[in-house]
Amino acid sequence: MLSIQHLRKSFFRRPVLVDLTFQVGPGEIVGLMGKNGTGKSTLLRMIAGLSAPDGGEISVHGHRVGATQISSRQSVLYLGHAPGLYPGFSARENLTFAGRLYHESADRDGIREILREVGLERQADDPIKVYSQGMLQRLKLALAKLISWDLLLFDEPFSGLDAQGRELTARFFQTMQRPDKSCLLVLHDLNWALTHCSRILLLDQGKIVRDAGCGPETHTEWKRVYHSLMN
Amino acid sequence: MFLHSRRNQIWLGLLILGLALDLWIIVNHTPMIPQQHWAQKIFYIHVPVAWTAFLSYFVVMIAGIAYLVKKDNRWDRVGLAAAEIGTVFMSLVLVTGPIWAKPIWGKPWVWEPRLTTSLILFLIYIGYFMLREFGGHPERIARYAAVLGIIAFLDVPIIFLSVKFWAPEVQSHPQVEMAKQPTGILGPFFYSLALFTILYVFMMLFRIHTLKLKEEVQSHAV
Amino acid sequence: MFWDLLKKEFLIELRSKEISASMLTFGVAVILIFSFSFSVSPRTMNTFAPGLFWVMTLFIAVLGLHRIYAYEKEFDAFGFLISAPVDRGLIFLSKWVSGTLFLLVADLFIAPPFYLFLQLSARPDPGMNFLILLLGNLGLMVLGSLVSGLAMRAKMSEVLLPILLFPLASPVMIAATKATAALWSGIPFRDWQIWILILLTIIISFGLVGFLVFDHITEE
């Protein structure tokens, strides 16, 4: 599904990602974790095609990711920190436009249903510039429901959400545990990651320090490694 | 380090001698053109320098295309070196042009097509250096500068044509067609042209070398 | 896909009217300044007018260009656009076409006050006048959209945009001004058709180049 080979990235000549190599297979939910500033968001942005690597290769379904390569982007949905939409448009208009970009044939009713599922039905026609952080986060969830993706890149899916929002998101990921779909999520909650991810990638100083599964037998080891890294 | 190599020292020495010889030839061995006298002598510097400046900007465009295709930092260094040296030479064009023009036309500046194109290109490249300075992180700047270098040189023929038709009453400066030149001019002219081209290549190699060192220092200092 | 992108540009502007409002207000303000700064005879003003018109157009184009890319940055909509399966050359085309249309509309609205305040007397053929307007705006915007793409993520982008655009756009300014002046003086078309050709050359060459290289300037 996703293949990363010897990926390198520097900003202002400072290396942010150093010789990264890993794969994500179909059906995997992979958690990306590490201290702030270790390049997790940068990695996601490069897979999405927003940022160009300095070296190495990224491919999705065998298609190379690059400036001129459109085919690799069809099956990938990137949800970053920012809402990624137009503040002057309503949620409904933004979803309609986003659907168009991904060649989705979603109609009015379909979009209304999705907005109802994420709890934004009442504010569906308000411009999203008046939305709170939590509402914008739910809008991203709506995008993930609307667009048929094979690979979801979600940067901090739980940030800014209240309890109801977190439950909504958790349920969403449960429904997304399918053999044809994969997720790469930037997470900060180790416990959630251990119970819901199939694998965790721990990043530090631009390198993968641990890439292992999250079966129950691994939990103690993971906690040990994680806490020693964070402190 | 570039100048530590014996070969480069020899080249530098030869270039300095060559330039001195050039000056001597211009002063002593070129025909005095009626009506223009000494002012015309600057033609032997002005035209080769202009040629080198435009050549350099052409190199920026080629380096830009190569960088976008290959994504190799070497091409970015070539592009930057060519932009810098080209702009240095272009400033010389803009200085020697009025020096030549003042005694001939009475005014230091006239909107003559070639000179005007030079000025516009010079201004475009001031923008180029501002983009390099403020455009963001070096990895992005390389791409953006490559694109700007391509756009800039593509604009050259269009700019020249526009200015030419804009003020047709302003004739090209007193440098007439090469074939119609009086004898005694071609020899020194081509010598000067060759010399400045070799000087340009030398300056390019030197600058590319310094840029490479700078990049190495910056990557290791972090 | 192109039509979806274009529709989006228009819908956003229809909603906020930021681009049109700022272009129009600024344009009229510029005309006012021109009226005061150039206190010359009506005959001289008629000679100056084509140049002044295009200078004003260039100024409001810069304003519009800045806004056209600014709203993409507010919530990082541009990021979403780039990560979607969209040919990025089409993004360039949509910005170019929408920018040209906004500029054209602004020019058409500003033309009457321009004519009035500067007390002009020329009676050009409106069809030809519109053609020059269209081509000149296309020319300014093709270079502008390209350069805006470069300046968009830079520091001091509001300053960098005009610094880069003005020298690059000099042939557009020359051609548009000369064509307008020739038309207003009643000179026969075949004597100034070269300017139309130059404008067309600029539009086609930079349109093509922009479409091809835009991929490379969209990434961070």
Helices, strands, pairings?
The complex is a heterotrimer of chains A (about 230), B (about 220) and C (about 220).
Chain A: E1 2-11, E2 14-24, E3 29-34, H1 40-48, E4 55-60, E5 63-64, E6 76-79, H2 91-101, H3 108-117, H4 133-146, E7 151-155, H5 163-175, E8 182-186, H6 190-196, E9 199-204, E10 207-213, H7 219-230
Parallel strand pairs in A: 3-8, 3-9, 6-7, 7-8
Antiparallel strand pairs in A: 1-2, 1-4, 4-5, 9-10
Helix pairs in contact in A: 2-3, 2-4, 3-4
Chain B: H1 6-28, H2 43-70, H3 73-105, H4 113-134, H5 138-166, H6 186-221
Chain C: H1 2-16, H2 18-37, H3 42-74, H4 77-83, H5 88-117, H6 126-151, H7 157-168, H8 170-184, H9 193-218
Strand order, sheet with most strands of chain A: 6-7-8-3-9-10
How many distinct beta strands of chain B?
Answer: 0
- Report on the biggest sheet of chain B: none
Largest interface: B-C, 30 and 33 residues
How large, in whole angstroms, is the Cα Rg of chain A?
18 Å
The CATH superfamily of the largest domain in chain A bears the name P-loop containing nucleotide triphosphate hydrolases
Structural class of chain B: mainly alpha
User: Approximately how much helix is present in the residues of chain B?
Assistant: over 70%
Q: Could you say what the CATH topology of the largest domain in chain A is called?
A: Rossmann fold
Main sheet characteristics of chain A: 6 strands, mixed
Strand content of chain A: 25-35%
Q: How many distinct domains of chain B?
A: 1
